[in-house]
Design brief:
Chain lengths: ~375, ~325
């Protein structure tokens, strides 16, 4: 064999090995898609919608999509943990509503007191409207005092929102984990409790007057992408929560306990896992995340809306299940839940661009959920 | 594995076919310079009638395209829908807000992109708003009170008042206007029935109130879509009588929706206060076209002019009532 032949053989062998590598890579990608059909559906919709309307793939719309679904996604993240233990939290959406009400009232009350402390020290606490009609106090003075108290109000509001959400979570967790009550009944009860409280607190009206700086965190405060475009902080909060809780589920013993408790609580008990405590913790986490979501909803809406949670519960549960989180527990990950949530949010956003009527949107969304679930069920069956 | 692959292929094929159909449809609608984006709070028939004038006028102008989204009473979804319409290049948006505070972030967004902002039904205090079409609900309540007052014979009587959702400014204004007149009629005892605009609650409230006040003399219905609940409850109590028959209960119904129209045609209504919902769309369209051409508006508000139709005249004047004119659309 001369040098030319050796060189030819070597080149041939390199071509073969590169083709094999490519083939192997393609097979791996195909395999990954077969294992996770939601990812494939996600790719399909992200290819389809820009073809149908080129404005879908603009920075503005992607930011709109992320911001509009930020609080929904965080609430759904909490539901993921509950579903993974084989439970269900029906109160998560109304917990979000109620926590946002309490938080907004706390912020408004804090700001009123803070403005009074500056402009009307020692006097009877007056509302901002009453202060505006007080001689010697101008609207500029009030605006300046309101602006000065925004930081404190946001801090108070965030603590109250998280605390309120956590409180509902602890009630659910204690009843389900410690007292072995049915999660369906317990969380249905707390759902009604939270909804009723929201209406008592708000009298059915949305609560406005929260700091403008808070709303700006979903509009203009954030990371500048271009001179015209800002990726708002609310999106970073959502991503950070997904990363942190994803790591907690995958990399910690607690995460492994959740998976084992969900797949076989008896086995979990035998290996020494304190199952009631694990169940308590997931409901508490769901409550905590609903509380954070409630604060993010005020950021996104600029108000605390007593109806904000009404349409959220089914999309929360549906999107998480669509992502591949098993309702019987023990199966799933934060990554999968994120894919399901993103798919759900993308379809809703994309259908807005197609200007489909609400009825058609619901038909398409329902069909996609059925197709996705069938594929997931089929793959689960094949795996045995 | 093969089955899973074929299912995946089928899914992809479904998307591709769907995409193909929609691409073709979409291409036909391209290159329209004036885009009007309508965002409604919910999808009940009267909402469609409110904006029908926009569609009717746009039909005669090939340069105008109308897109519409229904928020299904979800304020967050409505914000996303309005922003998406702005991103799609809407020249103007026409919004009926789910939440009058939450919508402000979307109005800010539209304003930043120099989109003409108009509202209907729900007034929102926002500097971006250039035109509002709505109702003078206080005046409507006042006129309804006057109608009941017109039947007052000075004897002690019980009047049922069906009140709407207390979180709705229109419901509150109708209630307040009605009481402004009726509270001065000292011989009339008003019994409020809370409905939340729900026909079920209206029926339950009527049934309960009729148990306590079977001799009710008159009823004011703040929205005629609940007239069916009134007639059902009266029938159950043996009080459903036509105008002119002994024991007839006076009915003043405000709105003009199909159930009210039917009740009036059946002879049970004394005064049908018709709000011409269908006028509003055309007014909004005209305002948008003027603003798009940088013309100024003579007024930035339009109130639909409610008119009374006496029960005896309903048959003769039915062509004036939107529920009759658009009956095919409304009864679908």
């Amino acid at each position: 064999m001369n040098d030319t032949e050796i060189g030819r053989n070597r080149a041939e062998s390199q071509r073969h090995s590169s083709a094999r590598r490519w083939q192997g890579g393609a097979q791996r990608i195909l395999g990954a898609f077969i294992e996770n059909p939601v990812a494939l559906m996600l790719v399909a919709v992200w290819v389809m919608f820009p073809l149908l309307n080129r404005m879908f793939l603009t920075g503005n719309n992607i930011i709109t999509l992320l911001v509009a679904n930020a609080f929904f996604a965080v609430a759904a993240l909490g539901e993921t943990f509950v579903l993974m233990t084989g439970g269900i939290d029906l109160s998560v959406a109304q917990n979000l509503t109620c926590s946002s009400m309490v938080s907004a009232l706390a912020m408004i009350s804090y700001q009123r007191d803070a403005v009074n402390a500056v402009l009307n020290p020692g006097g009877k606490v007056l509302s901002l409207t009453e202060l505006a009609s007080t001689p010697g106090i101008t609207s500029q003075m009030i605006e300046s005092a309101v602006s000065g108290s925004a930081g404190g109000a946001i801090l108070v509001g965030s603590v109250v929102a998280v605390g309120m959400g956590l409180l509902f979570g602890i009630i659910n967790g204690a009843a389900v984990g410690m007292f072995k009550m049915s999660p369906f009944i317990v969380t249905l009860g707390t759902q009604l409790l939270a909804r009723g409280l929201s209406y008592v607190l708000s009298n059915g009206h949305s609560i406005s007057g929260t700091p403008r700086e808070l709303t700006n965190m979903s509009i203009s405060y954030g990371l500048p992408v271009t001179s015209q475009l800002v990726l708002p902080w609310v999106v970073f909060i959502m991503v950070a929560l997904f990363v942190v809780f994803g790591l907690l589920l995958e990399k910690t013993n607690w995460g492994r306990y959740i998976t084992l408790t969900g797949s076989n609580p008896e086995a979990a008990r035998y290996v020494g896992i304190r199952v009631p405590l694990v169940i308590f913790s997931v409901y508490a986490i769901a409550g905590l995340l609903a509380g954070i979501g409630s604060f993010m909803s005020i950021m996104c809406l600029g108000t605390a809306d007593p109806k904000v949670g009404d349409p959220l519960l089914l999309p929360i549960i549906g999107s998480v299940i669509l992502g591949g989180i098993s309702t019987s527990g023990g199966e799933g990950s934060v990554k999968k839940a994120a894919l399901g949530i993103l798919l759900f949010a993308t379809i809703i956003n994309g259908m807005t661009f197609l200007n489909l009527t609400l009825s058609f949107q619901q038909i398409i969304l329902g069909s996609i959920i059925i197709i996705g679930m069938s594929l997931i069920a089929r793959i689960g069956y094949r795996k045995g | 594995m093969i089955k899973a692959k074929s299912m995946l292929t089928a899914t992809l094929a479904l998307f591709v076919v769907g995409a193909g159909v929609l691409v073709v449809g979409h291409a036909k609608a391209a290159s329209k310079p004036v885009v009007i984006g309508i965002s409604t709070d919910a999808g009940y028939p009267a909402r469609g009638i409110e904006v029908i004038g926009i569609y009717e006028k746009a039909k005669s102008n090939p340069n105008v395209k109308v897109i519409e989204q229904n928020a299904d009473n979800d304020s967050s979804k409505q914000i996303q829908q309005v922003k998406s319409m702005v991103d799609q290049g809407a020249t103007a948006i026409v919004v009926c807000a789910v939440d009058m505070n939450a919508i402000k972030t979307a109005l800010d967004y539209a304003n930043q992109k120099h989109v003409i902002v108009t509202l209907y039904d729900r007034f929102v205090d926002h500097p971006a708003v250039k035109f509002v079409g709505g109702y003078d609900s206080y005046k409507d309540g006042l006129k309804s009170g006057e109608a009941i007052k017109g039947f007052n014979d000075g004897k002690p009587h019980v009047v049922f008042e069906l009140v709407g959702n207390l979180a709705d400014t229109n419901a509150l204004a109708r209630r307040d206007g009605f009481h402004k007149v009726i509270d001065g009629e000292k011989n009339l005892k008003v019994v409020q029935i809370q409905t939340d605009w729900s026909t079920d609650k209206a029926l339950a409230g009527m049934e309960n109130s009729l148990q306590k006040y079977p001799d009710v003399w008159a009823i004011f219905n703040a929205s005629s879509h609940m007239d069916g609940s009134i007639t059902t409850a009266l029938k159950e109590a043996g009080r459903l009588k036509k105008r002119g028959e002994p024991g007839h209960v006076i009915l003043v119904s405000l709105g003009g929706e199909p159930p009210g129209m039917q009740t009036a045609l059946d002879g049970y209504t004394d005064v049908f206060m018709v709000i011409p919902f269908d006028e509003m769309g055309a007014q909004i369209y005209d305002a948008i076209m003027k603003l798009a051409n940088n013309e100024s508006l003579s007024s930035n508000k339009y109130y639909c002019k409610t008119f009374p139709v006496m029960g005896s005249e309903v048959e003769k004047r039915k062509e004036e009532i939107f529920a009759w004119r658009y009956r095919d659309l409304l009864n679908k």
